[in-house]
Amino acid sequence: MALDPWTLLLAVVLAFFANDLWRVLGVLFSARIDEESGLFAWVRMVATALVAALVAKLMLAPAGELALAPLWLRVAAVACGVAGYAVARRSLVAGILAGEAALIGGVWALGV
Length: 112
Prior knowledge:
Protein name: AzlD domain-containing protein
Transmembrane segments: 6-29, 41-60, 66-85, 92-111
Oligomer: single chain
Pfam families: AzlD
Mean pLDDT: 91
Keywords: Membrane, Transmembrane, Transmembrane helix
């Protein structure tokens, strides 16, 4: 069953407005944002808190295959990630790679 081209066009336009419109507006208005403003500092703090909560949830109450790794290994992987981040001069990529390597290596070594 072939889809009507107008239906596909409508789906693309609606998807744009649901997702990419906010990115375009962000680019347009980003030059006007004062990075030292109280509002921007609050947004940064909320974003940091959300990431910290996600990491804590994945570490303390994991779902799926991650739950097979023991708690001590998950905590050690997070510690390795933080250490990698600090050693590489606040490189997020280095922190993520260090944490992943520790977790994957630990799971492999334990045979989980």
